[in-house]
Design goal:
By secondary structure, the protein is an alpha/beta fold. It has 7 helices and 11 strands. It has one domain: BirA Bifunctional Protein, domain 2, CATH 3.30.930.10. The protein is 29% helix and 26% strand. The longest helix has 17 residues.
Length: 238
């Protein structure tokens, strides 16, 4: 089977344990490399977890909490294969994992990250929030505070991992780490900025639509997506 170029299947998955999401993501990435499925966007939340990226393993001082404190707060700690340092995921955070084949004309890691940032800035702008970039740093920012973090992995120009947008996230969890290894800056959420967060379904739809625009993809209907090869791969238990 050869996938059609330009198609994007969007999966709205609810709350998914981190390791289950990574396992499902891995199966989809391998299928995308074989051109068995079209591009994917996974939208979900995670139970509370702190993840340490590739560069974070060299900077253990950015994890401020002891194992006992993390256990008391029921927060898992995992080393992961994405780029970047340490970050927190938890309920109320919209996590997006694009699985995109960037070949033939988007084989540029920096461009990919900038395009993700653009999609996120356009997403939050729909709800009245003006976010921007900070030179030398990834993610999107409102003033001195990060609203969304980005950490990605590419294998044969197929992407995985992605972004985490704070919506109603418990921001005090970030006090357990130096978020993304960046000192002297804070974190914020749509709830804090707006007083009341957007409806989750509206936010998911906006994120999918803006990502599709920025990457020049067309979203496949949900009826097709729910019965596709990728849907069966996601549901597989190994």
């Amino acid at each position: 089977m050869t996938s059609e170029p330009g198609r994007l299947e969007v999966r709205k998955l609810g709350q998914v344990p981190y390791l289950k999401a990574i396992d499902g993501q891995r199966r989809l990435v391998e299928a995308r490399k074989r051109d068995e499925i079209p591009d994917q966007l996974l939208l979900l939340e995670h139970p509370s977890v702190i993840t340490v990226g590739v560069s974070g393993r060299r900077h253990r001082e950015n994890l401020l909490a002891s194992p006992a404190e993390l256990a008391r707060r029921n927060i898992d700690l995992l080393e992961v294969s994405r780029g970047g340092d340490v970050t927190y995921h938890g309920p109320g955070q919209l996590v997006g994992y694009p699985i995109l084949d960037l070949k033939p004309d988007r084989c540029d890691v920096h461009r990919y990250v900038r395009d993700l940032e653009e999609a996120l800035m356009r997403t939050v702008a729909r709800f009245g929030v003006t976010a921007g970039r900070v030179h030398g740093l990834t993610g999107i920012w409102v003033g001195n505070e990060k609203l969304a973090a980005i950490g990605v992995r590419l294998s044969r120009w197929v992407t995985s991992h992605g972004f985490a947008l704070n919506v109603t996230t418990q921001l005090d969890a970030f006090e357990l780490i130096v978020p993304c290894g960046i000192r002297g800056r804070g974190v914020t959420s749509l709830e804090r900025l707006l007083g009341a967060p957007p409806a989750w379904s509206d936010l998911e739809a906006a994120a999918a639509e803006e990502l599709a625009v920025c990457f020049e993809r067309s979203i496949v209907s949900s009826a097709v997506s729910e019965n596709s090869t990728a849907a069966r791969l996601w549901a597989t238990r190994e």
